[in-house]
């Protein structure tokens, strides 16, 4: 059920925002969207088990490679594709923001485990990327979006916003885990983050419903093509990094599925912090999200131990 909850919920959010945008528009005007992002990272911080984190020298190098690919190189691949394809500013904004944000909070770990990789190392890489991403993201967006003239951006205000809605809730969530008396129901922890993502998308799309009605099928296909190229390029970089940094198959899979994926909640948080229409940008982020999950699910199943029979990545 959990596997289908988010995609079905996002589809429902799009339909409701399309048909009756006023309720979502009103809630968005009340300033609820940033609080939705806060709840997402509060729960993810609570679910993080610090005792599983142990860095060795080889993993530190892997983490540095993940940072370089996921946070430093990826934004420029996104900008290159947006420029090369001639995406309109709204779609280009969504593509570049999605290419700039850190790794997904859970699906990269799940895909790593499904493919027979090291899920603990995937968790470590995910945490490192998300914590470093808070500080790196404003600078890469300034260089990419600012230099391209897509949107005016203040990196310091964006950094402050990310600290408030991403970093602090994540740390508070980890601290709350130490309170033995606090034991929320597993059902709540399982579905609350997805429910907040759905609510955020619903309110954001409702506020931009007029813009959404202008999106053509051709533009949607172009966004999918650009997203596929960005995600594919990141996976090739992760795959190729093994030729320079010798690691075992399990750790290589952790790098492959974490450093190539991008998290939708942070992208939505960044877009809501900008003084810019985000209707088409949100659509671009959602399409990127679905495409990477669909492709990686197929890839992980293909590379699973029972299918790969112990075959190596090379």
Quick description:
The chain is mainly alpha-helical. It has helices at residues 2-19, 22-29, 33-47, 57-85, 89-100, 107-114, 119-148, 155-176, 186-207, 209-212, 217-240, 249-259, 264-272, 279-303, 305-308.
What are the SSEs and their pairings?
Elements (H helix, E strand, L loop, with lengths): L1 H18 L2 H8 L3 H15 L9 H29 L3 H12 L6 H8 L4 H30 L6 H22 L9 H22 L1 H4 L4 H24 L8 H11 L4 H9 L6 H25 L1 H4 L6
Helical percentage: over 70%
Characterize the main sheet: none
Q: How widely separated are the two ends?
A: 35 Å
Shape: globular
User: What is the chain-wise order of helices and strands?
Assistant: HHHHHHHHHHHHHHH
Instruction: Name the poorly predicted regions.
Output: 308-314
What share of residues are in beta strands? Answer: under 5%
Q: Might you state the CATH topology name?
A: Na+/H+ antiporter like fold
Tally of helical segments: 15
- Using only C-alpha atoms, the radius of gyration works out to 19 Å
Going by helix content, strand content and strand pairing, the class is mainly alpha
Which whole number gives the mean pLDDT?
82
């Amino acid at each position: 059920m959990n596997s289908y909850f988010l995609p079905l919920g996002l589809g429902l959010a799009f339909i409701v925002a399309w048909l009756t945008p006023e309720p979502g528009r009103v809630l968005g005007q009340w300033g609820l969207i940033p609080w939705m992002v806060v709840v997402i990272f509060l729960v993810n911080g609570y679910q993080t088990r610090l005792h599983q984190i142990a860095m060795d020298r080889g993993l530190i190098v892997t983490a540095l490679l993940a940072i370089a690919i996921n946070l430093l190189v990826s934004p420029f691949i996104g900008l290159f594709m947006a420029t090369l394809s001639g995406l309109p500013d709204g779609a280009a904004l969504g593509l570049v923001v999605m290419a700039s944000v850190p790794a997904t909070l859970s699906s990269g770990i799940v895909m790593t485990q499904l493919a027979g990789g090291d899920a603990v190392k995937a968790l470590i890489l995910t945490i490192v990327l998300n914590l470093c991403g808070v500080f790196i993201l404003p600078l890469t967006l300034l260089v990419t979006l600012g230099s391209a003239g897509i949107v005016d951006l203040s990196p310091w205000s964006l950094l402050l916003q990310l600290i408030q809605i991403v970093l602090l809730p994540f740390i508070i969530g980890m601290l709350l885990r130490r309170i033995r008396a606090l034991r929320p129901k597993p059902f709540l922890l399982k579905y609350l983050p997805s429910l907040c993502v759905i609510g955020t998308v619903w309110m954001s799309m409702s506020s931009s419903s007029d813009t959404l009605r202008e999106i053509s099928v051709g533009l949607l296909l172009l966004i999918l093509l650009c997203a596929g190229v960005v995600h594919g390029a990141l996976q090739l970089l992760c795959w190729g990094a093994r030729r320079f940094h010798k690691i075992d198959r399990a750790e290589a899979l952790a790098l492959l599925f974490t450093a190539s994926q991008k998290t939708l909640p942070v992208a939505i948080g960044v877009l809501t912090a900008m003084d810019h229409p985000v209707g088409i940008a949100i659509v671009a982020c959602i399409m990127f999200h679905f495409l990477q999950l669909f492709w990686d699910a197929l890839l992980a199943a293909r590379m699973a131990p029972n299918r790969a029979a112990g075959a190596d990545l090379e």
